[in-house]
């Protein structure tokens, strides 16, 4: 528990001494640019001294069909990636714990290799996986199983699934690593106690492992939401900045970059700002859920 | 459970992990093998030409000699920027985390929420104003212009707050009783949490290594560029770089972070386990 330190003279400013370097850089490279970004969303598109236009960009967005397409796609994409990755990572972590102890570090490392790879390199790898008829996914999985090859990057019915698959491929191993670390931190006594109460492994998992992992799982979910909505992510890389056929793969990030490419900085900033309430919700959920479960 | 049953379970788990390992590693293998391929070989269907006909190192030497991009300069820049960012971020975040974990002061809650908010605000929102600002500070086309903005991190502050909460109060009290000043107390605690310092340093190094947006805006001259920018240039169709060279560069871009993580991966995991155990 943190303890107030009020005994020594000068204790009132001691914490600020420790905080000062961080706060200085925070102000310089984060608060000031952020204010700049919000301001930009209130000014006409273009560089330099642009004219003040108030909420015009936001009003334009409210009538922009592509903006809502991007928003809806981002929701589906983010939700799907959390729903797929979290259970899969839990299962993989469980398998890693069940397999030979000596192999565990090597296998864990192999699984998280995609997370260590620069996004631009991932683009090249994905092309090989998703590429038309010759892609790995078609050649190795779909065609041998008797399915028609899918044109992952062109067919509007599959683009979003393709995007979800790439996040799953990219992040599952990394999240497995965090969950595994969390599992190894659970005191053994808990399991011993649970074993006395029930013989069922499933119930041990449900009543001991899962509740103990809540902070890790929360971290994983928040990370994926942030990645899905706001990072220069795989979607951009995979479709080369386009929204794909019929905008089926258009995400908010992609849309922002499309606007930036044409120097429509005002609109681009407005899109980013419009995501802030959503991010605030995520922030609030982080604190609220933590407190409720703690 | 009997030993036999346990072994059987281990083997079964390994078999179930197999397809996932294959799905992850196969593209990497294809990438590494790609650096030996000629362009015609490269575009053949996978089943026909997964392995190159002969292992020709020409693509690799061309890349290393700097025929396509100033490879060594670029690699050096990436190392300097990532290392600088990692060291800076660890120092700032550890200090701030210590303050959040160990002191009560007015405005603490607000500042902490601000640190968390940092994680959540879309980076691209700040990118263009940040670029203007960096220019104004006379840091454009300078490695510092990329390094310095990268040292503030919300994730680091939240992480170290959690880490320093775990340090038993007795350690701090003992140091204080010996008459140590607050900075001294902090410095005595640091060795206790070194796995956490190392772990966060690595994570931040990797994030910095991958950073594309800010360097793209700030660094303009070719010899100042970092690896992701050089890669983007190599991949650019108009440059007509041989596919083999692209694959060689991609492989070399993965190696440093992979090696770094492999070396410290065990320490990192145990540090995380300790932290998550509360």
Order of helices and strands of chain B: HHHHHHHHHHHHHH
Oligomer: heterodimer
- Cα-atom radius of gyration of chain B: 24 Å
pLDDT under 50 segments of chain B (min length 5)?
none
CATH H-level homologous superfamily name of chain A = MetI-like
Question: Helical amount among residues of chain B, as a percent range?
Answer: over 70%
Shape of chain A: globular
Q: What number of domains of chain B?
A: 2
Low-confidence stretches of chain A: 1-7
Named CATH architecture of the largest domain in chain B: Orthogonal Bundle
Q: Estimate percent helicity of chain A.
A: over 70%
Number of strands of chain A: 0
Number of separate domains of chain A:
1
Report on the structure:
- The complex is a heterodimer of chains A (294) and B (278).
- Chain A has 294 residues and is mostly helical.
- Chain A has one domain: MetI-like (MetI-like fold, Orthogonal Bundle), CATH 1.10.3720.10.
- Chain A contains 14 helices and no strands.
- Chain A has helices at residues 14-40, 56-62, 65-98, 104-116, 119-130, 136-142, 159-184, 188-197, 201-212, 214-230, 234-238, 252-261, 265-274, 276-293.
- The longest helix of chain A has 34 residues, at 65-98.
- Mean pLDDT of chain A is 80; it is low at 1-7.
- Chain B has helices at 3-34, 39-42, 58-64, 71-102, 108-120, 123-136, 143-147, 154-165, 169-177, 182-189, 194-210, 213-218, 227-235, 243-276.
- With 278 residues, chain B is mainly α.
- Chain B starts with a helix and ends with a helix.
- Chain B folds into two domains: 3-58, no CATH class; 63-276, MetI-like (MetI-like fold).
- The longest helix of chain B has 34 residues, at 243-276.
- Chains A and B meet through helix 1, helix 3, helix 4, helix 5 and helix 6 of A and helix 1, helix 4, helix 5, helix 6 and helix 10 of B.
């Amino acid at each position: 528990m943190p303890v107030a330190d009020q005994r020594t003279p000068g204790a009132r400013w001691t914490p600020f001494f420790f905080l000062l370097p961080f706060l200085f850089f925070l102000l310089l490279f984060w608060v000031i640019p952020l204010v700049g970004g919000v301001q930009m969303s209130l000014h006409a598109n273009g560089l330099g001294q642009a004219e003040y236009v108030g909420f015009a960009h936001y009003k334009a967005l409210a009538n922009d069909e592509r903006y809502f397409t991007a928003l809806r796609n981002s929701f589906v994409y983010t939700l799907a990636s959390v729903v797929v990755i979290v259970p899969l990572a839990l299962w993989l972590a469980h398998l890693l714990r069940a397999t030979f102890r000596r192999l565990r570090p090597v296998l864990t490392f192999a699984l998280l290799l995609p997370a260590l790879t620069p996004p631009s390199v991932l683009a090249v790898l994905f092309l090989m996986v998703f590429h038309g008829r010759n892609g790995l996914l078609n050649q190795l999985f779909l065609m041998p199983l008797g399915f028609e090859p899918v044109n992952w990057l062109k067919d509007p019915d599959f683009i979003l699934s393709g995007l979800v698959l790439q996040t799953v491929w990219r992040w599952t191993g990394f999240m497995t690593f965090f969950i595994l670390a969390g599992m190894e931190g659970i005191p053994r006594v808990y399991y011993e106690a649970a074993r006395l109460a029930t013989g069922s492994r499933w119930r041990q998992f449900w009543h001991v492992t899962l509740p103990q992992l809540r902070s890790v799982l929360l971290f994983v979910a928040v990370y994926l939401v942030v990645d899905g909505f706001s990072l220069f992510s795989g979607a951009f890389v995979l479709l080369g900045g386009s929204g794909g056929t019929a905008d089926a793969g258009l995400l908010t990030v992609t849309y922002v970059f499309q606007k930036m490419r044409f120097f429509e900085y005002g609109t681009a900033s407005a899109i980013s700002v419009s995501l802030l309430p959503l991010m605030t919700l995520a922030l609030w959920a982080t604190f609220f859920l933590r407190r409720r479960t703690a | 459970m009997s030993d036999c049953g346990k072994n059987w379970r281990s083997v079964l788990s390994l078999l179930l992990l197999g397809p996932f390992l294959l799905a992850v590693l196969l593209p990497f293998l294809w990438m590494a093998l790609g650096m030996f391929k000629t362009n015609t070989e490269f575009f053949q269907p996978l089943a026909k030409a997964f392995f190159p006909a002969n292992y020709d190192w020409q693509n690799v030497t061309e890349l290393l000699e700097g025929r396509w991009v100033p490879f060594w300069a670029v690699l050096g820049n990436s190392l300097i920027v990532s290392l600088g960012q990692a060291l800076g971020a660890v120092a700032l975040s550890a200090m701030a985390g210590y303050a959040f974990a160990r002191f009560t002061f007015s405005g603490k809650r607000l500042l902490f929420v601000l640190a968390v908010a940092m994680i959540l605000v879309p980076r691209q929102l700040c990118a263009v104003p940040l670029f203007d600002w960096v220019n104004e500070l006379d840091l454009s086309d300078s490695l510092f212009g990329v390094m310095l903005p990268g040292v503030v991190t919300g994730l680091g502050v939240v992480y170290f707050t959690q880490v320093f909460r775990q340090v038993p109060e007795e350690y701090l009290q003992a140091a204080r009783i010996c008459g140590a000043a607050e900075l001294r107390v902090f410095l005595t605690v640091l060795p206790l949490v070194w796995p956490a310092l190392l772990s966060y340093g690595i994570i931040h190094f990797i994030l910095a290594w991958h950073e594309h947006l800010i360097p793209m805006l700030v660094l303009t001259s070719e010899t100042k560029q970092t690896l992701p920018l050089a890669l983007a240039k190599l991949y650019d169709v108009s440059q007509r770089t041989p596919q083999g060279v692209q694959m060689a560069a991609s492989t070399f871009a993965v190696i440093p972070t992979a090696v770094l993580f492999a070396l410290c991966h065990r320490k990192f995991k145990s540090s995380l386990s300790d932290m998550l155990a509360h």
